Amino acid sequence: MADGLSEKQIERAYQVFLKHCETSSPADAVKELETMMVPAPLIKAVREKHEGETVRIRNLDQPPSVWRDGRTTWYTGPKDSDRNWPAVVKSLQAKNFGADNIASVDEASTKILSLLDHPKQDKFSTRGLVVGFVQSGKTTNFTAVMAKAADRGYRLFIVLSGIHNTLRRQTQIRLAGDLVHANPDLWHEVTTELKDFTPPGGNPQVFFATKGHHMLLVVKKNAAVLRKLRDWLDKGGDYLARTPTLIIDDEADQSTVATAKINPLLHQVMSKFPKVGYIGYTATPFANLLINPADTTDFYPRDFIVNLPQPIGYQGTEILFGRELLPGEDPADLPGGFDMVRTVPDDEVDDLKPRAKKDVADFYPGVTHSLRRSVEWFWLATAARKLRGGGNEHSTMLIHTTTETAVHERFKDPLLELKNRMLTGLTTKDPGLLDRLRTTWAKETARVPAADFGETTVPFEDLLVELPDVVEATTVVIDNYRSTDRLDYESGPVTAIAVGGNTLSRGLTLEGLVSSLFVRAVSAYDTLLQMGRWFGYRNHYADLPRIWMTDELMDWFSHLATVEAEMRLDINRYMNPGVTPRNFAVRLRTHPKMSITAKAKMTSAVRAVAAYGGQLVESRFFDVSDNGLSWLEANAAAARTLVCRAARDGSARTARNETALFTDVPHEHVLEFLASYSFHERSSDGDSGRIAEYIRKRVRAGSLGRWSVGVIGNSQPRADTKRCDLGSGVEVRMVRRARLSYDEDSDFDGVADIKTLSGSRDEAIDLDIASSQPKRSELDARRREQRPNEGLLLMYPIDPWSEPTAKKGRVPLAAPTDDVVMGVALVFPRPEDKDSDVEYMSADLSKVLVEEEDLSILDQDDE
């Protein structure tokens, strides 16, 4: 060893150093070694060992994180002497959390705590953000961070738990169960399951002077509550300076950002502590990432941002709704979405919610076809779960149509009547009812096979035995901020249909949720995404969840899945040395009918920009209604014109069977084609005008002046599709592109979604590449080498009938033309210099009829 030191000497001194770190900061621990006359070389070796370990923790690949320059990390992981973290591990094991997920929570919480400040430092104020997924276990993560922080000396823990009592109570119960009850001699609950913060009697300084205790407060983001907390802290005196404090802001995008009362009060509370760490937790950080970083009184995550990985077994937005292809992704790897979403026809919506506030007084909901189907499925799925056994003991259905509490109450009688009719029908063995239930069970279990999730389909005859008890046990719970009714999962197994609004739409976990009817339109990404209580873990019933909503809402959630994936890709892209939370900005894709977040939260936002470099843009949606005929014909004509010009002015190249290829095609021909060819309006990336403007900018920069133009036909062995003549000697067999099926009980609106048009084999048509199915990374590398400044435009003559082959969930395209449906894909090379920017334009939202989240509850006195 260097300086004649042995590993044993260094390890012994290192353990002494760690012992001092329990009562002092690492810098002070070094001073302690110096006063003990430990030789300087040995101290240096100890410091290097500690710094190496902290750097290793900070640089862990998972979870990805970015932090402020100059931050020193100190936490190196749990110790054998810890009491709080082992208690959390034991609790997770009892909940069958799984070894891999526990290891992931351990790793993530270690990294997050290492980015906070050491509790023994004289003064600090840290602000960080942890980005998770809706219903993905964020509470578990911050419980782990709190446990490890308590084991190292943090003493006061304030958890800001949303704006509703239901979520605050649920969070208090969970934290008490995982932290307090396991070590009651270490903890004091200042708030309780039944009571939000009320100033305790006596001198507040006594609370902060008591040694060896951790204090837990779980409080709502409520103006009256926060004022009481602020004023109580004022009386803490100098003891606050000796109380390292950790503030966890659950649902940190809600109320924390840009609210006239809550935001200043939170800042006042935080400013009471000389030693305080603040961590915001949210699955929808859109507002948090748009805060002005220069405003020191706000809560921009200036010190660190951590991006939690998606847990194993989690069903999230893209799994349920699918999403669009992102740059650098292979189409084969794109999540397609389970077939679990059913359509509520537009003509039923007026029977499920009032059109406007003025209609509430006279509105009474009807038992529509979709409502009855969703309730009957809830009973069938619950019976199947009981027969299977295992997993969550509760079973819940969600009905969320409006925020109007009067409407919620009016759902109760129709639902109870539906329950009574079901019980009567089961008792009398009504043939019509039994046939309907049997057909529903057969169709649904065929559309989402249990075997795909490692489960076994329960025979319908077995369900019939269990169904009467399930229906009889069902309660209807009206859960809103005015009601006294509440979902109570602590008093035994629950079988409940929950009807509500905002109290059921954020943070609160609906245990065992298997059926949801959701027709509420809202104005912002974050609000809508948070209302998806159906996201989460479904152990032993992952095949059974179903959601009923309008086709428009399905499209919105699919768009949000793309926004989410793109946002996380952006965050992870910036997890590089030299990048800090202050010098990167995440781009958020816009939508014509939704804002990214509330307008008040976007005062520091600027227009997002996008560039097509390295991207694939392709046709996905086609109007196959009778009205779409002229649109299809115009696109086919545009394609034939381009083929003619490419054959005339480009260079014909040999390609594989049933394809044609022309290189060195002037960009003017591509621009003329884009002026004639129309992508469907649902293709968010397929804006011909925006693409054309991008090409013009790149041409001015010396790129994209020449293009390869290819025609991709059906080269499968024994292909029997019709041939398509595009002129100039180009004739190929049409390709098949069946469309996704739609809910048989709803009306098809005529817009076909084929999901994916092209493949990596097609993108390599103008490249010299060995692999027949190249990976995305190989395609990008070869294009940079061989055609760094040329674009590729591919045309796909699609058989207008396009009968599906073996793919599930597909039906014939059935387009109204005897000619051809023309699909197009454009491949853009990734430029070496700065890419030309194209703005994402946002539509005027002022006339969009959507509901705003009601935040008046923030100002209500909770006493």
In short:
The protein is α/β, with parallel strands linked by helices and 863 residues long.
Low-confidence stretches: 838-858
Radius of gyration over all CA atoms, rounded: 30 Å
**Amino-to-carboxy terminus distance:** 66 Å
The global form is globular
Class inferred from helices and paired strands: alpha/beta
Mean pLDDT: 84
The number of strands is 30
Question: What fraction of residues sit in β-strands?
Answer: 15-25%
- How would you classify the quaternary structure? single chain
* Main pleated sheet: 8 strands, mixed
Give the spatial strand order of the biggest sheet: 1-8-2-7-6-3-5-4
Tally of individual helices: 24
In percent, how helical is the residue content?
Answer: 25-40%
Characteristics of this structure?
single chain; 863 residues; alpha/beta; eight-stranded mixed β-sheet; six-stranded parallel β-sheet; 24 helices; 30 strands; 35% helix
